[in-house]
Design a protein that fits this description.
There is one protein chain. The protein is mostly helical and 307 residues long. It has one domain: MetI-like (MetI-like fold, Orthogonal Bundle). 78% of the residues lie in helices and 0% in strands. It contains 15 helices and no strands. The radius of gyration is 24 Å and the shape is flat.
Length: 307
């Protein structure tokens, strides 16, 4: 198990390093932050002074070495727009984003898995068709469309909820529902497929034939064996928590990480964008590594094949 963990850890570190390199090179070679921030009409002297102040006049490899040295010491740089330290700024926005992301993830996981199991146990019946129709609809409708529809109904027409902002807890309801709907739809389909495949296995039929209580067969044998593909999807969802904030926060004017990255990209605040990309990549890599470790725990054959 130790070798299994160390291999996954090495892959995670290599992936994060590749993301850091790509983000650094792309952000500094596609356009000049000095020109974007100061404007195309800025005097050449001002542009040159800006580049010198932020080290943009140094060779790219030297800039990258300074950047890696800063990351190694927990320093992700300073915002070129307002002079604040980037890491505290980004982390404060992450906390605001998690106020809607974590409840949405919990609601989506509970609703999606429950609906998928119920649909599988009633395969071919009316309940199954209704749940799958709802799942396909929830998956097919883009998040920004669903968000706008919810705003139109509950904020504009009924005046039950605010259309956006985080002034109080009611402002989080519509974004949470929007996010949870898509995740629940995906999980319901995956859970149903996994459960149906397991329920058709001989050991499930044998357990039923021996007189075991059907609920015990489902809980003790079917659900654990159907967990691997479901765990995979949950891992992707956890990894995409921060990355998926952009559209939802834009629709609901939620002042979290999504709004920060949109503003930073448009203004070419490279220090902030790099920090966000590294944070998102690290989150996704860690979640995938946790999923790999759960694979080894759920199915020892996977762990044995990887050692």
């Amino acid at each position: 198990m130790l070798i299994f963990f160390l291999r996954r850890l090495a892959r995670a570190f290599l992936t994060i390093l590749i993301v850091v390199v790509c983000a650094f090179v792309v952000l500094r070679t596609t356009s000049d932050p000095a020109v974007v921030i100061l404007g195309p009409d800025a005097p050449p002297q001002a542009v040159a002074a800006f580049r010198a102040a932020w080290g943009l006049d140094k060779p790219l490899i030297q800039q990258f070495a300074y950047y890696l040295w800063g990351i190694a010491h927990g320093n992700f740089g300073i915002s070129m727009l307002d002079g604040q330290k980037v890491l505290p700024m980004v982390l404060s926005r992450v906390l605001v984003t998690l106020e809607i992301m974590l409840p949405a993830l919990l609601l989506g996981v509970v609703a999606g898995i429950s609906a998928g199991i119920y649909a599988a146990l009633n395969r071919g019946k009316t309940q199954d068709r209704i749940i799958m129709l709802a799942a396909v609809s929830g998956f097919a409708v883009p998040g920004f469309v669903l968000g706008l529809v919810l705003v139109l109904i509950f904020a504009v027409q009924l005046h039950w909820l605010p259309s956006g902002g985080n002034h109080d807890w009611t402002g989080a309801i519509l974004p949470i529902i929007t996010l949870a709907t898509g995740w629940a739809a995906i999980l319901a389909r995956f859970t149903r497929s996994a459960m149906i495949e397991v329920l058709d296995q001989p050991y499930i039929l044998t357990g039923s034939a021996k007189g075991l209580v059907w609920a015990a067969v489902v809980i003790r044998h079917a659900m654990p064996n159907a967990a691997i593909p479901v765990v995979t999807m949950i891992g992707f969802m956890v990894g995409g928590l921060l990355a998926g904030a952009v559209v939802t926060e834009s629709v609901f004017s939620w002042p979290g990480l999504g709004q920060l990255i949109v503003t930073s990209v448009s203004s070419r605040d490279v220090s902030v964008v790099q920090c966000v990309l590294v944070l998102v990549a690290t989150t996704m890599v860690i979640s995938n590594m946790v999923v790999d470790l759960l694979y080894g725990w759920l199915d020892p054959r996977i762990r044995g094949a990887s050692t």
